[in-house]
């Protein structure tokens, strides 16, 4: 397997000698899936701007990385990095210009000290064993993307200073309350699926375009009213029995309320831009009521899921939906052309 350099330089490898780089001006080094236990056999050109060490067996960080003053992107995804191993990052002042730090899928139990990275844009510590967001207050307010999914976090905190944040991923944690979001005025995507949240509290985030609260403990849809830029709303696998609080979401294109307790889709009448509507695994009885309730998006809708509802047993089910929605392209798992 050859290391991948931006310049496509040839590497000579000997059993006891380091890999020799023909072009010492290379800016990108991709060592993904080399199964390396260390970097002793790898030369690290000082010109490197991107270093990808994804899917190796690293349990410590090579001190030479700390000398790569041109480095902008560092990925240590899917290694064996623990809290002690990552401590050296906080002392590598030469890396202060780093913009992207990926520590996803390792063995950390806390947020590492990233205070030296003054220009950090992307910070990913997902798929670890982190129990608290303590430490985020030291992360630069330049951050635009933060990923802390699949951990053991119980509280949303130390987020107040992220005024530039555009994407926040906290799915698959142990969160019970949506809080401390008020200052995230530029947030565009919020992913909170697979938590234990019972109520929506978004503080009217007016730039929010996508939100997922799938697989939580919601029984009400209220709380989205001020999110007028919202385009995609994912609420499947909750306990919602009524569509409400979304009449102001006039830009909504995708609505997923599958696997809830809905008996109708009343409340969607003012949504005129819906393209995808996921209603499967509910208790909706009548196709006629759907025709009335989704009248505002009748021409726009291209995908609808209704399987595992009583109405899906209606005679001529597909033909009837085709009559209701003239531009439909997919009904449940069936995809067809306009002349269906």
UniProtKB/TrEMBL annotation:
Transmembrane segments: none
Pfam families, sorted: LRR_4 (PF12799)
InterPro entries recorded: Leu-rich_rpt, Leu-rich_rpt_4, Leu-rich_rpt_typical-subtyp, LRR_dom_sf
GO cellular component term of the entry, any: cytoplasm
Sorted UniProt keywords: Leucine-rich repeat, Repeat
SUPFAM superfamilies: L domain-like
Keyword Protein biosynthesis part of the UniProt annotation: no
Keyword hit for Lipid metabolism: no
Name of this chain's protein: Protein phosphatase 1 regulatory inhibitor subunit PPP1R7 homolog
Species the sequence originates in: Cucurbita maxima
């Amino acid at each position: 397997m050859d290391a991948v350099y931006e310049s496509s330089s040839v590497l000579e490898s000997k059993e006891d000698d380091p890999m020799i780089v023909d072009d010492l001006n290379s800016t990108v080094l991709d060592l993904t899936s080399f199964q390396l236990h260390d970097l002793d056999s790898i030369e690290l050109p000082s010109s490197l701007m991107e270093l990808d060490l994804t899917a190796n067996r690293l349990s410590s960080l090579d001190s030479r990385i700390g000398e790569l003053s041109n480095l902008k992107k560092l990925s240590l995804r899917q290694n064996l990095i623990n809290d002690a191993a990552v401590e050296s990052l906080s002392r590598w002042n030469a890396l202060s210009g780093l913009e992207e730090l990926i520590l996803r899928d390792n063995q950390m139990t806390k947020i590492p000290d990233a205070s030296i990275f003054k220009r950090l844009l992307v910070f990913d510590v997902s798929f670890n064993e982190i129990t608290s967001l303590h430490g985020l207050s030291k992360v630069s307010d330049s951050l635009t993307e933060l990923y802390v999914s699949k951990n053991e976090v119980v509280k949303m905190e130390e987020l107040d200073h992220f005024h530039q944040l555009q994407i926040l991923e906290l799915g698959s944690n142990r969160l019970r309350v949506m809080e401390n979001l008020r200052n995230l005025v530029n947030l565009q995507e919020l992913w909170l699926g697979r938590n234990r949240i019972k109520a929506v509290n978004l503080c009217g985030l007016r730039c929010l375009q996508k939100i997922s609260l799938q697989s939580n403990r919601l029984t009400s849809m209220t709380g989205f009213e001020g999110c007028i830029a919202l385009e995609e709303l994912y609420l499947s696998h909750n306990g919602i029995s009524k569509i409400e609080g979304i009449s102001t979401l006039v830009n909504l294109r995708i609505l997923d309320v599958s696997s809830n307790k809905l008996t109708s889709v009343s409340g969607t009448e003012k949504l005129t831009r819906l393209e995808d509507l996921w209603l499967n695994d509910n208790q909706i009885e009548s196709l006629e009521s759907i025709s009335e309730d989704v009248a505002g998006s009748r021409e726009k809708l291209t995908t609808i899921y209704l399987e595992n509802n009583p109405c899906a047993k209606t005679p001529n089910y597909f033909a009837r939906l085709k009559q209701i929605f003239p531009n439909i392209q997919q009904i449940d798992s069936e995809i067809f052309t306009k002349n269906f």
